[in-house]
Each structure stands twice: as structure tokens, then as C-alpha cells.
Design goal:
The structure holds 2 protein chains of 2 kinds. Chain A has 8 helices and 14 strands. Chain A is an alpha+beta fold. Chain A has an 8-stranded antiparallel barrel. In chain A, strands 2-1-3 form a 3-stranded antiparallel beta sheet. Chain A has a two-stranded antiparallel sheet with strand order 4-5. Chain B is mostly helical. Chain B has 9 helices and no strands. In chain B, helix 1 packs parallel to helix 3, helix 2 packs across helix 3 and helix 7 crosses helix 9. Chain B is globular. Chain B starts with a helix and ends with a helix. Classes of the chains: A alpha+beta, B mainly alpha. Chains A and B meet through helix 1 and helix 2 of A and helix 1, helix 2, helix 4, helix 5 and helix 6 of B.
Chain lengths: 425, 160
């Protein structure tokens, strides 16, 4: 009988059939409805995620804009009680700002006249509020005042400066909450400029741009159980569901491991924009590029190995809390969500059979992954504008809809590290 | 008929019913795309085969080539034509025991009548791989026939 003709057994199987079980029809019926629901469910997940992301971004920008607007409208105002000044002096008051250091000399001249008790000083946090308050005081006590406006950064910086040994001849600068600092000489800038620069980082409404690179490895506990110690091959028992080789004849031939499989996220890049709120909190978002690499090695058949390279793009949304802030060092805690969308998968199959060349294919993927991440972040300030940062990271993928041939892709717990640089605008 | 196809592409009845279920669901959902010109049976058959291959592709890294065979040592005594001479049920059982990749190639070539170039395209492999896998599938089937013959001989010896 011929054996190598296409369809040689067609006739034999031509009328072959079997009746599906009754259970099957019921399952099909319920699945048809369920699939509709699932599809809708997936859509809502996607829709909710995108909507939440957009709302978040909108709020960040909106809130940031409001704060910026408020800052531009009113700075912290310090009233210095002084004799022989009038309301006109208030209106023509000198404005001292860090953007205009030449005014520091003016400030010193003014401050040279201050010899009064610090308890008479008052501090207000808005120009209008301050002016009305000054008016009242001026009218009621017939006192003349000089208003010096400084940036809130500076004011905040000196909140903890202690008053001690102030004599009438010394130059003083009044700081918020009635703190006074001595000036050593006429040329001394009453503000510690370096500290001001550092303090500037803490100020609300400041933007920061970050560029980070990192690597992640799967750290699922079950992953460790799957691989044997000696050769890193998948053990045939105790496999998680996703790796179970059902119906492949394994049951009767399970004496040897079939293949080894590893997966890593060797590299990810992220570009982030961060907005500070208050002195400790900030919100960050941006764009992240992930590279995922998986390798499966086979011990049987033609296929020797299958290497997958997977590229995805993600939008992280994170909240950062500053735990420690020093002049040169900061320690923050970051936590957030990562919406990851797959881009392309590049597959390379290599065969034992030397007559078969390696095959490569490129395909686009659908689906998405949502992960939560948390990271303690160590930041080292190189100067007032640039900082290096280093952050161990833990990432947990709790929702994944990607269909991939990588058996371990859907590992949900990953750990790694990222390093980067941050620019403070 | 559809279940018969699924049984050939699956390793057991449960897996066959899974494929059948997905094939029916796809057929129902796409019934409006059937032109009505060809035979409905052929259309359903095509959907079933495609679904079986899709399931295979989906689980390829887990299912494919799961069994270690030393093909160099394989030199079955059974003739090549013995495969075609097997009874339907017997042949089906043996096909189901083949590794998934070999089984698909064997079905597509020997039963469906595709040539190796077409199979390569369907399976996402090369024509050479299809030829190689088909050839190995036949060797494995002949090995299984050998094993059956050996068992039968043993039983006969015990009986005598």
C-alpha cells in the first residue's frame, strides 16, 4: 500500500464520527453566554483603567496648575514692625526674592534697623491677608511697617532657626514664626543659598523629570519549586497549572524532564514626570519601555530551543512619599500601578536538525497587564538640580490578558532594581 | 464527524471535547460568514481543524515534543504499510499517543491531504520540518505496532 501520498487515510476516516456528550451541549450553551459577559468584562477593565489613568493625569496637571497659580499670586509675607513708616511704605515695600539676589543688600540695610523684640513680629501666608492685617495694625497702633516678601522656600527653611543672643547692634532677618537669624556682616546673604536650593526640592508645585533603567526577575515561590537544582530543568511533578503538560503523552513518559524554561525582564527604561505636593508627597507618571526575554530548551524532537523577545510599553502612575530628606541624601517610598500594553513578540526557533535553519518571526500582540509596584528609593543629590537615584523594586502583576507562547510570562511576582537620574526643574 | 476530527487531533476524549466545544462556539458565532455555497460539513470541518491547530499553537511550548524518543535507534520491524492496514479504532488510539506536533502533521498530511508546504504554513514551521515530523510519526506508529505484536506473542506463549 502506498504510504507517502497526501490523504492516504482520508477514506478510512471519511465517515468516522462520534456523538458528543450531552454535557457538551450544555457547556457550549453556557459558554456562549459567558463569553459575551467575559468580553464585556474585559472591555470594562480596559475602559476603567484608561479612564482612571486619564483622570489621574488630568488631576495632576490641574492641581499642579492651581498650585503654580497660587504661588505666582502670593508669596509668604513677613511683617517687620518698625517705627516711622506708613502705609505708603507697605505698598512700596521691598521685595526680596532669591531670583534677585542683588536685593539682598537692600534687605540687610532694612534689617539693620531692627532692634525690637521678636514677639512683635507677625507672619502671614498671603500677601493680601498680610496687607489687610498690616493696615489694621498700622491704623490701630499707629505703627509703620515694612513688608518684605520672600519665597516660601526660604521661609520654610528657616522655621527652625533658633533665636539666641541677639543684640541691638546686630543685623537681623525675620523668619517665619518669629525666628530671627543673625547676619555676620553686610555682605552675608541672609539665606543659606545651598540650603535654599535643597529646600527648593521640597517645595510644593515643583516638577521633576526622571530617567531610569532597571531589570526585573521573576520571584514566584512556585518557580523555585519547579526547577530542579542540578540542571535547571522543569521537574515533571509539582508543576503549576500553566506548565502542566496535559494530554501530551507525558503521563506515560514522565521519567525525564521535557524542557527547561526561563523568563526575565532584563531591561526596562522609564521616563517620568513628577509633581511635588506639599513637603512630602509627589505624584509621578510617564512612559516605560519593557523588554522581556524567555527561553525554552527542549530535549526531544526537532526543536532545540525557542527564544522569545517581547516588547511592551507601559504607563506608570505612582505616589511618592519622602521619608528622609537631607541636603545630599533623600529616602522616599514609591508605590503605584503600571498599565502595560504589549507591542511585538519576536520568536526564534532553533532546531536540532542541522538541515533546518533557525526560524524567526515577528508578531503583534494584544491584551494588557496591570501591575502594582512598590519601591524604596534612595536619592543622592549631586547638585541643586541633578540627583542620582537607586531603587529596589517589587512588582506584582494582578491582571494579565496577554496570549503568549512564553509559558512563564504570566508569572505575577517580580523583583528587581532600577537606577536613574532626576532633574529638578 | 466533528468529534471524529477532534479525536484525531487530541490525545484523549476529554481534550477532544474541549476542542469540539470551542469549534462549535466559533461556528455558531461565525455562522453568518458562511457563504452557503459550499457544503456546511466542509465548512465545519475546516473550522474544527483550524481550532485544533490553534489549540496546539496556543500550548505549543508546553505540549510539543513532550516525549523523548531516540529516533536514531528506531528501527521498527513493522512494515510501513502496516499503518494503513490497522483497524480504525486501533489506528486512532495510536495516533492519539503520538506527540502533539507529530500527530498534527500526520493528520494534516495522511488524512486531510495537505502537502508539506501547506502544513508548514499552517503549523508555522518549514516544509522540511513537516516532512521530518511526518516521517518520525510513521516510525513511531510502526514502533507501537511492533509493541502490540510483541505483547500478542507473549500472550500466545502464555496461553500455550
Amino acid at each position: 500500500m502506498q504510504t507517502d501520498q497526501p490523504g492516504s487515510l482520508k477514506e478510512k476516516f471519511g465517515g468516522f464520527g462520534a456523538a458528543p456528550s450531552d454535557q457538551l451541549w450544555n457547556t457550549i450553551d453556557s459558554k456562549l453566554n459567558q463569553k459575551e459577559r467575559k468580553k464585556r468584562g474585559a472591555f470594562w477593565w480596559w475602559f476603567t483603567g484608561v479612564a482612571a489613568g486619564l483622570t489621574f493625569i488630568f488631576l495632576v496637571f490641574r492641581f499642579g496648575y492651581e498650585i503654580g497659580k497660587r504661588e505666582s499670586q502670593g508669596s509668604l509675607v513677613i511683617n517687620l514692625d518698625e517705627k516711622s513708616q506708613n502705609q505708603q511704605n507697605i505698598e512700596n515695600s521691598e521685595i526680596i526674592s532669591e531670583e534677585n539676589p542683588s536685593n539682598q543688600t537692600e534687605l540687610n540695610k532694612d534689617l539693620n534697623k531692627i532692634k525690637e523684640d521678636k514677639n512683635e513680629h507677625t507672619v502671614h501666608h498671603s500677601e493680601s491677608e498680610n496687607q489687610s492685617h498690616s493696615n489694621q495694625q498700622g491704623e490701630s497702633a499707629n505703627e509703620e511697617k515694612r513688608v518684605i516678601i520672600v519665597q516660601p522656600d526660604v521661609a520654610v527653611l528657616h522655621q527652625r532657626v533658633e533665636l539666641s543672643g541677639v543684640s541691638g547692634d546686630e543685623k537681623l532677618v525675620l523668619m517665619p514664626e518669629a525666628d530671627v537669624k543673625k547676619l555676620k556682616n553686610d555682605n552675608e546673604v541672609p539665606f543659606e543659598l545651598n540650603s535654599v536650593a535643597i529646600e527648593k526640592q521640597k517645595a510644593s508645585g515643583k516638577w521633576e523629570i526622571g530617567l531610569n533603567a532597571g531589570t526585573l526577575n521573576t520571584i514566584n515561590a512556585s518557580n523555585q519549586k519547579v526547577f530542579t537544582d542540578q540542571n535547571n530543568f522543569l521537574a515533571t511533578d509539582n508543576l503549576p497549572d500553566e506548565n502542566t503538560i496535559q494530554g501530551s503523552g507525558l503521563e506515560s513518559y514522565n521519567l525525564q524532564p521535557e524542557f527547561s524554561s526561563t523568563i526575565r525582564r532584563p531591561l526596562f527604561f522609564e521616563l517620568t514626570a513628577q509633581r511635588n505636593f506639599g513637603r512630602r508627597w509627589s505624584i509621578a507618571s510617564g512612559l516605560q519601555f519593557n523588554f522581556i526575554s524567555g527561553v525554552n530548551n527542549y530535549l526531544a524532537g526537532d526543536l532545540q530551543s525557542s527564544r522569545s523577545r517581547f516588547f511592551s510599553i507601559a504607563i506608570p502612575l505612582a505616589v511618592e512619599m519622602d521619608l528622609i530628606k537631607r541636603r545630599r541624601f533623600e529616602f522616599n517610598w514609591v508605590a503605584g500601578l503600571n498599565y502595560e500594553f504589549p507591542m511585538v513578540q519576536h520568536l526564534t526557533n532553533t532546531y536540532y536538525n542541522t538541515s533546518i535553519a533557525s526560524q524567526k518571526s515577528l508578531s503583534f500582540c494584544s491584551g494588557y497587564m496591570i501591575s502594582a509596584f512598590t519601591a524604596p528609593r534612595f536619592t543622592f543629590n549631586l547638585n541643586e538640580n541633578i540627583a542620582l537615584q537607586f531603587a529596589p523594586q517589587l512588582r506584582y502583576y494582578f491582571h494579565q490578558t496577554i496570549n503568549s507562547e512564553m509559558p512563564l510570562l504570566k508569572r505575577n511576582l517580580w523583583g528587581g532594581i532600577s537606577v536613574g537620574v532626576k532633574w529638578k526643574l | 464527524m466533528m468529534k471524529g476530527i477532534c479525536l484525531r487531533y487530541a490525545s484523549n476524549e476529554m481534550e477532544a471535547e474541549d476542542v469540539l466545544q470551542e469549534a462549535f462556539i466559533r461556528a455558531f458565532k461565525n455562522l453568518d460568514t458562511w457563504s452557503g455555497k459550499g457544503a456546511l460539513g466542509a465548512w465545519m470541518r475546516m473550522i474544527t481543524v483550524n481550532m485544533a491547530l490553534e489549540q496546539y499553537r496556543k500550548n505549543k511550548t508546553q505540549k510539543n515534543l513532550a516525549v523523548v524518543y531516540d529516533m536514531k535507534e528506531a528501527n521498527p520491524l513493522a512494515e510501513d504499510s502496516a499503518i494503513e492496514k490497522l483497524g480504525l479504532d486501533d489506528l486512532l488510539k495510536k495516533i492519539q499517543k503520538l506527540p502533539a506536533g507529530f500527530r498534527n502533521v500526520f493528520n494534516l498530511y495522511a488524512v486531510e491531504g495537505y502537502n508539506h508546504a501547506e502544513i508548514g504554513e499552517l503549523m508555522g514551521t518549514s516544509e522540511g520540518t513537516s516532512k521530518s515530523q511526518y516521517s518520525r510519526a510513521r516510525v513511531l506508529l510502526r514502533q507501537m505496532i511492533d509493541e502490540d505484536v510483541t505483547k500478542e506473542n507473549k500472550n500466545l506463549n502464555y496461553a500455550n
